[in-house]
Design a protein that fits this description.
Blueprint: H1 2-6, E1 10-11, H2 13-23, H3 26-37, H4 43-57, E2 63-64, H5 71-83, E3 91-95, H6 98-106, E4 108-111, E5 117-119, H7 123-126, E6 138-139, H8 146-160, H9 162-169, E7 173-177, H10 182-198
Helix pairs in contact: 2-3, 4-5
The structure holds zinc ion.
Length: 199
């Protein structure tokens, strides 16, 4: 949605890794096993993937979805951006309750190709699970289940929560209530991006 609206490239470690897996690379297969177990992929691997991506796509602005997730990742990103003579304008924190996370994950459908996400409850896709943007196949992610979710929440509380302080101190943290519907959340994110683009 951000790419279509603003023409800014968006990526996430998950999207990069899913592509590696589809291509059948050793890295893709190895990290897929970790994700199936609910483990986080090592920081070093994630940072390397993001760095490669930035060199290819990051010239005129970029948005990372779900990155950085740990303090070491954030610090590495800081030095990569410094070497590229740029910096982060805003760190958007989507504040979502555990209950919301649970209900969304249990009904999530995702496009294998572009990452577009919708819900199994959406009537539009019930009979024809095809992505409206790229015609890719919409499917359940095999790592979306309750056991994996518990593990992810633990990782999140111990490793990701400290990032709020880190970006708070840099005065670029922006919190958004993520329990609302898609349009409301997108409206808030748009305002932040527009504010930065015109600044
Ligand atoms: Zn798609």
């Amino acid at each position: 949605m951000i790419t279509r609206h603003f023409g800014i490239p968006v990526t996430s470690p998950g999207a990069i890794l899913r592509r590696e897996k589809d291509l059948g690379t050793p890295l893709g297969l190895e990290t897929d096993e970790m994700l199936q177990r609910g483990d986080l992929v090592p920081d070093k691997t994630i940072v390397k993937l993001i760095e490669d991506w930035l060199h290819l796509h990051g010239g005129y602005g970029f948005v990372f979805d779900g990155f950085p997730r740990t303090l070491p990742q954030a610090e590495s990103l800081g030095s990569i951006l410094k070497s590229l003579q740029t910096s982060i304008d805003a760190a958007i924190w989507l504040d979502v309750s555990e209950e919301t996370v649970r209900s969304r994950i249990s009904g999530r459908l995702q496009c294998r190709t572009c990452g577009f996400t919708t819900s199994v409850g959406s009537a539009q896709f019930a009979n024809r699970p095809i992505c409206p943007y790229c015609e890719g196949r919409l499917e359940r992610r095999s790592d979306d289940n309750v056991g994996v979710l518990q593990q992810r929440l633990r990782e999140y509380n111990s490793k990701t929560q400290p990032l709020a302080d880190y970006y708070g101190k840099m005065s670029i943290l922006r919190k958004i209530d993520g329990n609302r519907d898609r349009d409301a959340v997108f409206g808030d994110i748009s305002q932040i991006i527009e504010g930065k683009a015109s600044a």
